Amino acid sequence: xxxxxxxxxxxxxxxxxxxxxxxxxxxxxxxxxxxxxxxxx
Length: 41
Known about the structure:
The chain has one helix at 13-24, and strands at 2-4, 9-11. By secondary structure, the protein is an alpha+beta fold. It has one domain (1-41). The protein is globular and about 35 Å long.
């Protein structure tokens, strides 16, 4: 899951993360900083 406060959207699962990457990274020169990871059940 990617919860992006800048876009106001939450992207869940493989399809959601693919959507996020395609929307905000493909064709952009985006720099990302890893903040945290949480393992759930």
